[in-house]
Amino acid sequence: MSAMPEVLRVALALAAAGVPVLPLRRGKVPFGNCRTCAGTPPRCGGRPVMKSAGPCQCPAPCHAWAAATTDPHVLTSPLWAPVWCEAVTVAYHPGGAGLTVVDLDDAAAVAWARESLPATRTVQTTRGEHWIYRGAMLSSNAVRPGVDIKSLMQYARWLGPGTGTMTDLPGAVRALVVRKPSAARPVVTVPALAGGGECRHRTPAYLERGIAMAEQRITEAPSAVHATVYRIFLAVLSAHGRCGCLTDAHITRLFTAAQGKGESPRHCTDAWTNARTTLGL
């Protein structure tokens, strides 16, 4: 690479500041997956790539947000060189930098934010603004008209440092992705043991205490909420999932606790389903 493209200069500066970056091609979209990962099912570094996976293991830009990196050796490697020559702009992974971007797509959305959200650093976009908060959460699109949340497992275009003082992620933003379980959660049933199994619960209070403890552990999780929710769902199902005593009311309480920590309804359902699959339920 005889002359360093400007997009790469910007990317290296952001990476040096601890912001994971990736190139975007024309149309403001990531480059396509590598040949190895373009098949079905996709593979990455010799392992399946899941939506909740961490950084991509491929040597070239691959898997959109998961390709974002702060490693200058990766960004300047020969495998990335052709991509930077074609890139038109730089994107970053907000969640990887511990940030959340409230993407306000039009004037009406901006007006709503000014009335409803705490002030923070703002970046002008083509049609609206990005409001950037300190703190990461699950991403979600169309949380209200003209408003998307970009944080974990999402990318946002780099449009400059913006203006104003960045503030901590408020509960008002987290609440935008929380839905009432009755409206958003599909009915989940837990099958009884084949041939009928005797309930191991000594008293009704035994099950109630287990659900209450699970709610408390989710609510008090200081970090790694997604992994914590899955682990607790797995523990609850391991103890109470084979006798048929878990009801929709119990499951709703667990989902409500998880959504209160920022988990989306879809991630709650995925964690519950994965826990059941692990236990063979």
Summarize the structure.
By secondary structure, the protein is α+β, with helices and mostly antiparallel strands.
Question: How does this structure look, described?
Answer:
It is a single chain. The chain has 281 residues and is α+β, with helices and mostly antiparallel strands. It is 35% helix and 16% strand. It has 10 helices and 12 strands. The protein has helices spanning 6-16, 72-75, 81-86, 107-116, 171-174, 181-184, 204-219, 225-240, 248-260, 265-279, and strands at residues 21-25, 29-30, 43-44, 47-48, 89-92, 99-104, 121-124, 129-134, 140-144, 147-150, 156-157, 167-168. Strands 6, 7, 8, 9, 10 and 12 form a 6-stranded mixed β-sheet that branches. A 4-stranded antiparallel β-sheet has the order 2-1-5-11. The model is unreliable at 180-197 (pLDDT under 50).
